[in-house]
Design a protein that fits this description.
There is one protein chain. With 575 residues, this protein is of the alpha+beta class. The chain has five domains: 3-46, no CATH class; 75-135, no CATH class; 138-354, P-loop containing nucleotide triphosphate hydrolases (Rossmann fold), CATH 3.40.50.300; 367-447, Elongation Factor Tu (Ef-tu), domain 3; 455-572, Elongation Factor Tu (Ef-tu), domain 3 (Beta Barrel), CATH 2.40.30. 23% of the residues lie in helices and 31% in strands. The protein contains twelve helices and 30 strands. The strands form eight sheets. The protein has a six-stranded mixed beta sheet, with helices on both faces. A six-stranded antiparallel beta barrel has the order 13-14-20-17-16-21. The protein has a six-stranded antiparallel β-barrel with strand order 22-26-24-23-27-28. The two termini are 60 Å apart. Mean pLDDT is 75; it is low at 1-23, 45-120, 192-205 and 566-575.
Length: 575
């Protein structure tokens, strides 16, 4: 009881003696009214909290006739194929999945409260992939080559010719580059967007954009050519299906990039080791050698022999004479008589269009390796990366490894367009909630909680040793490059030397490994890394080893030696 509400009983003088009958009769009604008021306020607050969590208010905008949203209001497909947002569907959200026109169950609005299993019934992923982009398959293309071969200028000019860059923007780049004393860099600035890249005149990070051919939707990744940025180039190459290798046809420049110390050889070797089998060689700056057929054939002869040794089939390598600065033979076939007199092959765009699209692992459990992390304007955060396997829908719960924490997908963006779903091959941005951003780093892998990716610090692998000056011995320090991960590691054991083609064991427990050897080794990393066996996931089973600024080996994971366990979100190792 509250002392301020107590009252002495009538006719009683002793202090502290109270009339409890008076309290129970009159004050009970007052307390009931107070309780009722608090109950109503509590219920309203609860409803407001639920609305703010499940149905956040967002600002809408219209761009090029398409309705888009900002925030977490993710559009989804409702009845009769009508696109609705979570806010619009609030009043008619079904408690159970509804039936589509074909009898399949689908959920009108995916929300975090729905289980992953129910959300998965909403779409036929293969059918949706066939319908997307007018039936055009996706192709992830990386552009590689020695520094100053003209990669950014070549692709920037191609994008301009395709209409991806308007004349006003291009004029602005031309004026700004002239003012900076770099008039020839105007087209390169289409992809080299940072001030430091423009000041130095070199690509430093992987630039990414999208364009379309007659039969493909192409995600373009412009990789840096300078040797100081090889790790960034590896990150781009690891996410590619096909590649364009740009070489400079100028006298002395091709030789500088191709001979010892140049990046032409290393880049070609890297993309092949990371799974790229189709390659277009853009022999650039042919206008500077007057479109000489002899020079073109000389470059083909030298490059062809090396690419065959690197593992490329002759039938999968295509050579195209080009000029990135003048735009000849890029989007359309050239009409320059000096070229057409001896070359009747495709333009660069035609060759890209002719590449075969790879088979995607959409049937396997979801896997996405994080390439960037940043704070979102809302309550969550965003990660970017390429989906290597499976598919994802808004509302799904996914697991982050190695932190071993789950979160909810609130939004999916592909090429600045909000989507309900994305699948293997897509470079996406995911908006996530239910997890602290500080627990996510570049290199973490998001996966299906029911079938998580392996996490380990020791694994065995089959490696191919490149051109090395110092033999590899037990305890040799290396830098492991795996997807977007760059992790210090050690060659813990030399297990055996193998025959290059048959895989037969030639020698057990060798003392060292030298150039050209094929071997089984055990590698130990300083921190836990998420990876898969090559036989299960080719995309997630490849890696590169570097030592003192040079790539010394490529490998595939064959066995995980210590699957790191987790307890309450913390890592521990079984004894």
């Amino acid at each position: 009881m509250l002392p301020g509400l107590m009252r002495s009983a009538p006719g009683v003088e002793e202090p502290g003696h109270f009339d409890y009958y008076y309290w129970n009769k009159d004050m009970a009604f007052v307390c009931f009214l107070v309780f009722l008021t608090l109950l109503v306020k509590s219920r309203d607050a609860s409803h407001n909290k639920l609305d703010s969590e499940v149905l956040p208010k967002v600002a809408r905008m219209t761009v090029s006739g398409k309705k888009q949203t900002m925030g977490f209001d993710v559009p989804s497909t409702g009845e009769n194929g009508v696109v609705v947002t979570a806010t619009e569907a609030a009043s008619k959200r079904p408690e159970t999945p509804s039936k589509g026109s074909n009898g399949d169950e689908h959920i009108t609005v995916p929300t975090p409260a729905r289980s992953t299993g129910k959300a998965r019934q909403a779409i036929n992923i293969k059918a949706e992939l066939e319908k997307r982009q007018g039936g055009k398959p996706l192709l992830n293309l990386v552009v590689i080559g020695h520094v100053d071969a003209g990669k950014s200028t070549l692709m920037g000019h191609l994008l301009y010719l395709l209409g991806n860059v308007n004349k006003r923007t291009m004029h602005k780049y031309e004026q700004e580059s002239k003012k900076a004393g770099k008039a020839s860099f105007a087209y390169a600035w289409v992809l080299d967007e940072t001030g430091e890249e423009r000041d130095r005149g070199v690509t430093m990070d992987v630039g990414m954009t999208k364009f379309e051919t007659n039969s493909k939707v192409v995600t373009l990744m412009d990789a840096p050519g300078h040797k100081d940025f090889i790790p960034n180039m590896i990150t781009g190459a690891a996410q590619a299906d096909v590649a364009v290798l740009v070489v400079d046809a100028s006298r002395g420049e091709f030789e500088a990039g191709f001979e010892a110390g140049g990046q032409t050889r290393e880049h070609a070797l890297l993309v092949r080791s990371l799974g790229v089998t189709q390659l277009a060689v853009a022999v650039n700056k042919m206008d500077q050698v007057n479109w000489q057929q002899a020079r073109f054939q000389e470059i083909i002869s030298k490059l062809g022999h090396f690419l065959k040794q690197a593992g490329f089939k002759e039938s999968d390598v295509f050579y195209i004479p080009t000029s990135g600065l003048s735009g000849e033979n890029l989007a359309t076939r050239s009409s320059v008589s000096q070229l057409t007199s001896w070359y009747s092959g495709p333009s660069l765009l035609e060759q890209i269009d002719a590449f075969k699209a790879p088979q995607r692992s959409v049937d396997k459990p979801f896997r996405l390796c994080v390439s960037d992390v940043f704070k979102d304007q809302g309550s969550g955060f965003c990660v970017t990366g390429k989906i290597e396997a499976g598919y994802i829908q808004a509302g799904d719960k996914i697991l982050a490894m190695p932190p071993n924490e789950t979160c909810t997908v609130k939004g999916i963006t592909l090429h600045d367009e909000a989507l309900d779903w994305a699948a293997a091959g897509d470079h996406v941005s995911l908006t996530l909630t239910g997890m602290d951003i500080i627990k996510i780093n570049v290199g973490c892998v998001f996966c299906d909680p029911k079938e998580p990716i392996r996490v380990c610090t020791r694994f065995r692998a089959r490696v191919l040793i490149f051109n090395i000056e110092v033999p590899i011995t037990q305890g040799f320090p290396v830098l492991l490059h795996y997807q977007t991960v760059s992790e210090p590691a050690t060659i813990r054991k030399l297990i055996s030397v193998l025959h290059k083609s048959s895989g037969e064991v030639l020698k057990k427990k060798p003392k060292c490994l030298s150039k050209g050897m094929n071997a089984i080794v055990e590698i130990q990393t300083q921190r836990p890394v998420s990876l898969e066996l090559y036989k299960d996931y080719k995309e997630l089973g490849r890696f590169m080893l570097r030592y003192v600024g040079s790539t010394i080996a490529a490998g595939v994971v064959t066995e995980v030696r210590d699957n790191v366990k987790t307890r309450n979100g913390l890592m521990f190792f079984p004894v």
